Amino acid sequence: MKRLFIILLAKILYWIGKKLGKGSSLPGQIALKLDKNILQKIKLPENIIVITGSNGKTSTTEIICNILEKNGYSVGCNSEGSNQTEGVTTMILNACNLKGEVKRDVLVIESDERYTRHTLKYFDAKYLIVTNLYRDQMTRNGHPELIYDIVKEAIDDKVHLILNADDPLSSLYGYHRENVTYFGMNENALSTKENVSVYNDGKYCPNCKEKMQYDYFHFAHIGSYHCLNCGHERKEPQYAITNIDLQTGEVEINQKYKIKMNLRSIYNAYNMLAAFAVTNLIGVEEKNIISVLTDYVIKNDRVQNFTLNGHEAMLLTSKHENSISYDQSLLYITRENKPCTVVIIVDAVSRKYFTSETSWLWDIDFELLKADCVKKIVLAGKYVHDLVTRFQYTGISQDKIIAKENLDEMMNEVKENSIGNIYVVTCFSDRMKFMNRRKE
Amino acid sequence: MTIKILHLYADIMNLYGEYGNIKVLEHALKLNNINVLVEKKTVDDELLLNDYNMIYIGCGTEKNQEKVLEHLKKYKDDIKKYIENNGIILATGNSYEMFGKQICEKEALGIFDFYVERTKDRITSDVIYQSKCIENEIVGFVNKMSNITHNLNPFFKVCFGIGENENNDYEGVQYKNFYGTYVLGPLLARNPYFLKYIVEKLAKKKISWNWKDYENERQGYELVLEELKNRE
After folding, report:
1. What mean pLDDT, rounded, does chain A reach?
2. Distance between CA A405 and CA A183 in Å, rounded?
């Protein structure tokens, strides 16, 4: 009886919340308060996929859902809501009927890496994907090795892990373990023999801390590694990108399938590959996955195209406090190789909490913007001084750089004096400050 | 004369962009016409500390700190001598913990008397600290998993944010030319007054610092200082 009451209440609260345009945490939060074991009393489908990690969770989740739905599966997913325990609870209670059954073929759950251990207390995932573990929001997360330990608490012997073979840290969950499937990218024309980013978190083995050997890098410390001391190494991925061409966007999977990526980035290729792996494991035929992935357009609005005063413009949402996310955007710009103006805004470090911490700017490979195609750089926002200081040490000619603390002045500058295409690189916390000023 | 700086463990104690401190220091010395040479040494290198005018160590993960401490312990006596002879050491983040007596149960370098206790949760905070060395406060961010107790040589008085433990208002260690603080990342980039202080220590004289070169850094510093003070 109590279960029915909680389910009803959660559904009503969800409905009201939706009408009011409010977030999705509250119904789940209240349900958990009334009965912290409510999820154990719900009959869930056997196929539950949980996606966690530092970068790529949202995109990977979205792609998985799409592949499944286009292949006739009914799917429950928390994509529109919070990825913490409360948000997951909201989604499940909303998806279940009054008898407490979730009549879906698959649940696809994006899970905040710090909350996965809490969420998975209440039900078992069949598949757990860890996309990667990078330096991310360290003011909150501490550092990746801590997050490694925290996620590890969520991993029991039963769950089938789907791991990024190329990331030495998150792949360590598979060390001496049987039920693991790896995805990864093989050496290709874009690989380098040396680490070319600002820092190298793969220099020492995360397991034993002896020096790690690398055969090649794809980006940052992602690549092919092996430790001579403890044997931790990149495992041959069952799902592999066997070739990639970012000029054409063509990606080859398992030497068998070619797909054309709409968003031409290595990171997008990894997300697609993880989605390929898990949906194939669930039973979707390879060729049916490929037909969904070909020319797949990511629906989340992280990348937006628009025009500004006659200039072609692109918003590349990047996460503050996450250098790999920034590097991804900067690499995209330099690979496009069109004469351009790059706008970088750091005005609020986070939308969820206050901090004035900007050390992470030194982890970003802003040196990439030395490229000839970058004609002008506009730095803006409250932390513009920290940006300017960081840029002093990039070796980029100071003549190219304009700094505006005031965002209206920044917009005038961008509208009036941009050269070539415009790329706006900033975070969720700051992007609307740009987008809303466009029209005035 | 050439100033020699040793950036110790740059490849393993570099969690929050600490290499920035070295870049900023090099640049400042050059601006003041002082020759500078930076060398990097790490866990499998031999150290000859007396070759250097300054040693810098940044912040690392708990595991990396353990690894580094093993190596550094071999040079315990050399470090002690180096400090007593007025050599300059700047140790930021958890690297300064290594100079105390113990980190949890494990023996550390034992150069200073303090103890490091591991906390259950991560402790983070924006901070404003006041030292006796310079008039201007230091601004920055602290991100740690420890408390420090029995510290006889605090570097800072806490003006905003957290200090070495919950029970007092002190932070860091300062003795002769040893400067240890939990303020992480490139604190010299954000604190031009402290940068000037270190440069003068290295030059062993007052410098007619050209603030025009540091207008941007100074504005950034003032802005953050004001922002944090408003949150008090």
Report:
1. 95
2. 43
How sure is the predictor about A295, in pLDDT bands with cuts at 50, 70 and 90?
A: confident
Topology given in CATH for the domain delimited by A303-435: Protein-Tyrosine Phosphatase; Chain A (3.90.190)
Residues of A in contact with B15 (CB under 8 A): 135, 138, 143
**With an 8 Å Cβ cutoff, are A388 and B216 in contact?**
yes
Task: Show the domains of chain B with their CATH numbers.
Answer: 2-230 (3.40.50.880)
**Best CA proximity match to A95, nearest among A52, A53, A48:** A48
Contacts of B231 in chain A (CB under 8 A): 354
Confidence of residue A240 (pLDDT cuts 50, 70, 90): very high
- Mind telling me how many Å the CA of B85 is from chain A's nearest CA? 32
Q: Which of B122, B139, B160 to mutate to test the interface with A (most CBs of A within 10 A)?
A: B122
Which helix (H) or strand (E) segment holds residue B54: the answer is strand B54-57
Q: Is B73 on the interface with A (CB under 8 A)?
A: no
What's the mean pLDDT in A320-349?
Answer: 96
Look at the block and give the residue holding tokens 């009451």: A5
Contacts of B46 (CB under 8 A, 6+ apart): none
Q: Tell me: the pLDDT tens digits for B28-73?
A: 999 999 999 999 999 999 999 999 999 999 999 999 999 999 999 9
Structure tokens at A129: 């994907």
- Maximum distance among all Cα pairs of chain B, rounded to whole angstroms: 49
Among B171, B116, B167, CA closest to B145: B116
Q: CA angle at residue A21 from A15 to A22, to 5 degrees?
A: 80
What is the rounded average pLDDT of the residues B89-101?
A: 98
Is the minimum CB–CB distance between A338 and chain B shorter than 8 Å? no
Token pair belonging to B8: 């110790």
How many A/B residue pairs have CB atoms within 8 Å? 104
Instruction: Determine whether the interchain pair A357/B67 forms a contact, defined as Cβ–Cβ distance below 8 Å.
Output: no
Alpha-carbon radius of gyration of chain B: 17
Residues 6+ apart with CB under 8 A from A139: A321, A349, A350, A353, A355, A357, B124, B141, B143
Of A416, A419, A420, nearest in space to A404 by CA: A416
DSSP A233: B
Amino acid (one-letter) located at B167: N
A367 touches chain B (CB under 8 A): no
**What is the number of other CB atoms lying within 10 angstroms of the CB of residue A334?**
18
| Phi, psi values for residue B157, rounded to 5° | -100, 135
Tell me the whole-structure pTM to 2 decimals. 0.95
Q: Which residues contact B201 (CB under 8 A, 6 or more apart)?
A: B88, B177
Does the beta carbon of B11 lie under 8 angstroms from any beta carbon of chain A? yes
CA atoms within 13 A of residue A68's CA, in its CB half-sphere: 26
Q: Tell me what pLDDT residue A408 has.
A: 97
Q: Does B139 touch chain A (CB under 8 A)?
A: yes
Has residue A349 got a pLDDT over 80?
Answer: yes
Sequence ranges of the domains in chain A: 44-80+104-293, 303-435
Tell the residue number behind the tokens 């989605």, with chain if given: A275
Residue in the structure block whose two tokens are 């965002």: A407
Chain-centroid distance of CA B171 in Å reads 12
Residue B90 and residue B104 in contact, taking contact as beta carbons nearer than 8 Å: no
Tell me which residue of A341, A425, A417 sits closest to A381, measured CA to CA.
A425
Identify the CATH number of the domain defined by range A44-80+104-293. 3.40.1190.10
How far are the Cα atoms of A193, A217, A335, B53, B226 from residue A189, in angstroms, in the given order?
11, 11, 14, 44, 49
